[in-house]
Amino acid sequence: MQTINPGNPIEPTPSAYGYPLLIKQLLHTPLAVNPEQEIVYRDLKRYSYRTLGQRIGQLASALRNLGVSPGDTVGVMDWDSHRYLESYFAVPMMGAVLMTVNVRLSPDQILYTLNHAGVKVLLVNTEFMPVLAEIRDKLETVQRFVFISDVPGDALPDGFAGEYEALVHAGSPSFAFPDFDENTRATTFYTTGTTGLPKGVFFSHRQLVLHTLATLGGLASPASQGRLHRDDVYMPITPMFHVHAWGLPYVATVMGLRQVYPGRYTPEGLLALVEREKVTFSHCVPTILHMLLANPAIRHTQVRGWKVIIGGSALPKGLAQAALDHGIDLFTGYGMSETCPILTLAQIKTPLAGDPARELELRTRTGLPIPLVDLRIVDENLLDVAHDGKAPGEIVVRAPWLTQGYFKNPTASEELWSGGYLHTNDIGTIDPDGYLQVTDRIKDVIKTGGEWVSSLELEDVISRHPAVSEVAVIGVKDAKWGERPMALVVLKADARADEAEIKAHVKGFAEKGGISKFAIPERVLIVQGIDKTSVGKINKKGLRQKFDGA
Asked: What confidence tier does 516 reach under pLDDT thresholds 50, 70, 90?
């Protein structure tokens, strides 16, 4: 893209403060207007924002005493906790880089990411000590280890520099966080791609601050549905190691919300926290939502009005309706690791009282772009396609918080940014009202009989069968048609349905023009469970490998 220099830059007064967009600036408002608001970790710890500010300084002081300098990388292996929140701020605020370690990867992949990122100090929860023992002698750059435990007095393992709480307690709360270039790298984490080694993505202070403000603006825009406000109680249900928990902890902090961190996820534990702490705002992937709705405790938990963003993969209408039946105010969000992640939110523009079908349709759409997002659907020549809700194209995007490349991987970085737009590798449509709808991943589209069948659309149709609890659709090789759809279906408890019944259900939609006749699956397998990735998405690559040629 060509840029010009208009030749009239502002000339600041010598004493004026330029206010770099640094993560530390996100703390000013909550500490000024809501310093006594609570931050809760399970049933183990609760303290105020004022204490959070002090502990951030103490953590930075402790890390400096361990040898962390600006530019060094600090890795964290922990469940969702107040410690993670403190690391979100303290590490980048001191000019270091926070690496959030995906603890659900294999030990070999964790080892690769730690070495590739060049981690110098590693914070490790006691639950991940077996993984560390397996890879420790192969770590190339780690010089210090910090032990994390929820058990007071837990013995410090050999070779560890100290225990987290003891080190924080000994640190100074008055750590002087400096100003520096807002384009300084603040965070790094690794994508769980379906091919090759995990890829590192990275984000600057400026990008994280702008993503926080734009997401805040997007969530505060609606009159009521899905609206985030100062009286909300926030609890993440997506891992803090994955895309900064979608950036929502930064949003919750700048707003001064009461925050609840659940530790390791269990459905009973999550629902108990929702009930006890009066949680009103969360986010999760469809598999977690499915897990919560299937748990008997949901019947005794007050979830009416609980606002929940669903992302990570498509939200089937059957699952969405089940949540709405419980009174959950759910809606989808869209993004990816490379986009920090939020690009769109499926908020309802106008009141739709008396039209539940239309409301369900809009809540499960991919959504409307949040502020500052330039989102297009394009053909192979990067030309826009019609916004008629029918013409498909690849989703490409620009926003000020998109990763500028993959860490130490220039070839993949150029592919990601081919033509000056970030390529999502998703196929979608945009309707005349501006709503985006992802129809499939490029690699998941099923090419059969000369037509393209969307695995997501077929999953959505099958999910509406009353006996279906969960579904995944993949393409398998076929000598005549090239590929044919195969559906893997998990039934609801005590429900009954067979292959013929599921096929007949899809055929009924096809006869009404709701889906292509080529989408009627060749086979339907009734299974006990569906394989997931490390972040809870359906593992379609693994399923294709397992069932190809079946």
From this structure: confident
In sequence order, which ranges of 178-328 are alpha helices (DSSP H)?
205-220, 243-246, 248-255, 267-277, 286-294, 317-325
- By annotation, the residues acting in catalysis are 191, 338, 447, 452
Tokens, residue 426: 């998703």
Q: For residues 364 and 375, what is the distance between their CA atoms, to the nearest angstrom?
A: 19
Higher pLDDT, 521 or 30: 30
What residue segments make up the domains of the chain, in order of their start? 23-202, 446-547
Q: 487 — phi, psi (to 5°)?
A: -110, 135
What's the rounded Cα separation, in Å, for the pair 61 and 438? 45
Instruction: Give the 3-state secondary structure of residue 67.
Output: coil
Domain at 446-547, CATH class: alpha beta
Return the CATH class of domain 23-202: alpha beta
Q: Could you report the per-residue pLDDT of 329-358, keeping only the tens digit for each?
A: 999 999 999 999 999 999 987 766 678 888
Which two tokens mark 105?
């990867």
> Counting Cβ atoms within 10 Å, is residue 312 exposed (0-12), middle (13-18) or buried (19+)?
buried
Buried-exposed string 474-504: b where 16+ CB fall within 10 A, e elsewhere:
bbbeeeebebbbbbbbbbbeeeebeeeebbe
State phi, psi for 473 to the nearest 5 degrees: -120, 135
Which residues make beta-bridge pairs with 330?
308
Strands (E), 130-178: 144-148, 162-163
Looking at residue 78, what is its pLDDT? 98
Could you tell me how far CA 274 lies from the centroid of its own chain? 20
Q: Quote the tokens at residue 282.
A: 């969360």
Entry pTM: 0.86
Q: What does the chain come to in residues? A: 550
CA distance 18 to 260: 34
Other beta carbons within 10 angstroms of residue 359's beta carbon come to 17
Cis peptide bond prior to 341, omega within 30° of 0: yes
Task: Break the chain down into helix, strand, coil percent, rounded to 5.
Answer: 35, 25, 40
Angle at 246 (CA atoms; ends 244, 248), nearest 5 degrees? 90
Calpha distance 248→237 (Å, rounded)? 11
pLDDT at 442: 77
Contact at 8 Å (CB) between 39 and 82? yes
SS3 for 207? helix
